[in-house]
Amino acid sequence: QVQLVESGGGLVQAGGSLRLSCAASELTFSTYTMGWVRQAPEKEREFVAAIKWDATSRYHADAVKGRFTISRDNSKNTVYLTMNSLKPEDTAVYYCAAVYRRWTVIENEYDYWGQGTQVTVSS
Fold this sequence. Notes:
Blueprint: E1 3-7, E2 10-13, E3 18-25, E4 32-39, E5 46-51, E6 58-60, E7 68-73, E8 78-83, E9 92-100, E10 112-113, E11 117-122
Parallel strand pairs: 2-11
Antiparallel strand pairs: 1-3, 3-8, 4-5, 4-9, 5-6, 7-8, 9-10, 9-11
């Protein structure tokens, strides 16, 4: 059974940094595009970042461009989201997602999802 397990969330002051991790199991990680999606209270889900299975393509939403960086380590079956210059509006549950051999930033096209990790940014 495929599992995606996020970690690294927490409470941080505005301007601070966090690095989220998502460890994948029971899938051939190097064949999956990985993405991060967030959902803030009373808001729709927002696609934040994606990285192609071979890391040759990356996407960052305009709201996070220049502050967040997605990366992956296929030897560790792990994808990361490094978040700098955090703002209160980044407060959300962050979900990791995976899709097999497709380059897409449409969340409905992702096959597997983690349980999420809470990120709270205080002002």
